[in-house]
């Protein structure tokens, strides 16, 4: 019976969580009907291998066609886009509030308020479209490269029951969605601040113009380093969404990302004139 549970898990692990229980019951009932009175290991193995590759069966439940983002990745892709949309709204709100206080005089005129609101909406749309594009690119790459097979298993290999993987136990290896959402949120917020609105990172004093902390010219010169580090962080967050629990591949990638991020931080923090003279004085 352990083979049956492994087979069922191999099918439902690629399905949206809300439909897994129903599919699991349906599959288990079908398998038991096919087994009949003979439930020996040999008959179980023969029956499951006759049913075929569980990865192929999961596609039947999901529906398949020639998509940019295939069925097995689609619902995870939508989850990430929802996070991006939420982050975009938060960033737009932050930008609006900061600009409102920085341009408090505009608050007293209707045209000033309209201008601030329009700019805030524009920031939200620009942020969401930009990051949604790169998220789509990452998912499309995973879909069409060996990374897809690493995550879901090679569907082209001949299926054998003995090759089924053990069902993961509930443990700390499972990655919390809250952790993934926060990681993605702060990465997008960091990129937006440094690449688009570094002027907001400033010292604010009542009655005085904000004093930027960083030299804008230096930030622009190292923007490719910031973008590279941020892209790796987004890729890591997406892989966490897709895989759902820590494994050797994800652990190695996370370690490499940590080392690269440390190197990027050192390269940037040691740049001459990084900090604005007005801030230092």
Describe the structure.
The structure is a single chain. The chain is mostly helical and 281 residues long. 70% of the residues lie in helices and 1% in strands. It is built from twelve helices and two strands. Strands 1-2 form a two-stranded antiparallel sheet. Strand 1 and strand 2 (211-212) form a beta hairpin. The radius of gyration is 25 Å and the shape is elongated. The mean pLDDT is 77.
Provide the helix percentage: 55-70%
Distance between the termini: 73 Å
What strand order characterises the main sheet?
1-2
Largest sheet: 2 strands, antiparallel
Beta-strand segment tally: 2
Determine the oligomeric state from the structure.
Answer: single chain
Provide a compact summary of the structure.
The protein has twelve helices and two strands. The chain has helices at residues 2-12, 17-35, 41-51, 54-62, 71-102, 110-144, 146-152, 177-195, 216-221, 223-243, 248-269, 277-280, and strands at 202-203, 211-212.
């Amino acid at each position: 019976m352990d083979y049956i549970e492994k087979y069922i898990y191999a099918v439902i692990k690629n399905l949206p969580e809300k439909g897994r229980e129903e599919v699991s019951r349906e599959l288990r009932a079908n398998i038991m009907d096919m087994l009949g009175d003979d439930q020996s290991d040999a008959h179980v193995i023969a029956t499951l291998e006759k049913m075929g590759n569980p990865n192929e069966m999961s596609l039947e439940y999901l529906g398949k066609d020639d998509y940019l983002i295939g069925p097995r990745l689609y619902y995870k892709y939508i989850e990430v886009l929802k996070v991006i949309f939420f982050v975009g709204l938060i960033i737009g709100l932050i930008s609006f509030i900061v600009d409102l206080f920085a341009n408090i005089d505009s608050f007293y005129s209707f045209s000033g308020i309209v201008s601030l609101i329009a700019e805030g909406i524009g920031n939200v749309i620009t942020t969401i479209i930009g990051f949604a594009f790169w998220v789509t690119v990452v998912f499309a790459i995973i879909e069409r490269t060996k990374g897809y097979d690493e995550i879901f298993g090679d569907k082209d290999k001949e299926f054998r029951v003995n090759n089924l993987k053990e069902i993961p136990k509930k443990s700390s290896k499972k990655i919390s969605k809250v952790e993934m959402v926060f990681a993605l949120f702060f990465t997008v917020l960091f990129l937006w601040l440094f690449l688009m609105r570094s002027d907001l990172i400033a010292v604010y004093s009542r009655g005085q113009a904000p004093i930027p902390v960083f030299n804008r010219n230096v930030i622009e010169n190292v923007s490719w380093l910031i973008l590279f580090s941020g892209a790796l962080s987004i890729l890591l967050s997406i892989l966490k969404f897709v895989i759902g629990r820590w494994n050797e591949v994800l652990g190695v990638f996370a370690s490499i990302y940590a080392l690269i991020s440390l190197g990027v931080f050192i390269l940037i923090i040691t740049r001459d004139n990084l900090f604005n003279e007005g801030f230092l004085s």
